Amino acid sequence: MSKTKTRPSTEQGSEVAVDLTQAHIASAIDAGKALMKEGKTKADAAWEIFSQIGGEAKEVLVAAFVAGAGLTPKGALTYWYNCRRKAAKQKKA
To answer: How far is 76 from 42, CA to CA, in rounded Å?
Structure first.
């Protein structure tokens, strides 16, 4: 079973293939799923995923949020923006 997802790119509806089978990405997704099983929020799971693979492309993070935090693609994009802002604030402090 392939875990490669195709998500729309932000540019003119083109599709971008995202490989979620890479070890570090799969590990971050598993960490997000584990937090969800513990009863944590989707925001907690998304932040954990972002903290592990925040340097990846936006499409990769959005796909990981969908897979690991149970978000919709549109919701995952919102969480990506929120995590990015939170990381920037923490970097300044």
So the answer is: 10
